[in-house]
Amino acid sequence: MSRRNIGIIGAGRVGAVLGAALERAGHTVVAAVAVSAASRARAEQLLPHARLLPADEVAAAADLVLLAVPDDVLGGLVTGLAETGALRPGQIVAHTSGAHGLAVLAPVVAAAAFPLALHPAMTFTGTEADLDRLPGVSFGVTAPDELRPAAEELVAALGGIVEWIDEQKRPLYHAALAHGANHLATLVSEAMDRLRDAGVHEPERVLAPLLGAALDNTLRLGDAALTGPVSRGDAGTVAKHLRALDAVAPGSVPPYLALARRTADRVIAAGRLRPIDAEPLLDVLREAAKERAV
């Protein structure tokens, strides 16, 4: 890809880091939008040569416009840029949303510019440390056929790997990532809280090797990596868990029930637990769910 002048609309954790990575690859971030104090500080650190301008001026100054804004404001932003005449023919306008595809960029096409959906499957801190994590990261990309070579070059400049995602499957793609990453963070935080309730002073130290092994095994083995009382059908142990959680942290019971039931479904489907052996466990889960519903 030829060297491009890039505009970043949204110098948040994602936009500022991707802009810095593109500068490392030889492109130039000429301008950025940074509204909050945190965004301005981030831009100063990661994009020190970029001018901080309003969104329409950033778009007008760039060959490639990167929209790194929350999903719910993306459509309005794109429409506004088109209505102000900030977009021009031949320009590439890319967004970093996982949930959206090309449909939200329809005003870009109407302006004879090129639309691109470019989502990094990574969680960002918005610091220089993220730059070292980008190599090898997958990017969920949706692009018109004529833009695919440019999209591949752009992802390569970021050190990433392209995963082509069909337009209609982007919500499912994004749901899978959010379910795996965001809910994992919630689950781990819950586990740390309950360990503190149990008197453990450094729950992160206890969990780190266990969760690291569980994640590694699951990525390699899938359902074959499932262990624990649910996978063994230990109804009595699960009942004790539910009573203990209800006494200390009732809010933890519903997610435990939901995940235990889903785990049971998966181990049964995988042939790890016979349906007849699972019945006592499933009875415990059903009764607990009924009690919560009353």
UniProtKB/TrEMBL annotation:
Coiled coil: none
Annotated InterPro entries: 6-PGluconate_DH-like_C_sf, DUF2520, NAD(P)-bd_dom_sf, OxRdtase/DH_put_Rossmann_dom, TM1727-like_C_sf
Domain Putative oxidoreductase/dehydrogenase Rossmann-like, residue spans: 2-120
Location of the DUF2520 domain: 138-263
Protein name listed in UniProt: Short-subunit dehydrogenase-like oxidoreductase (DUF2520 family)
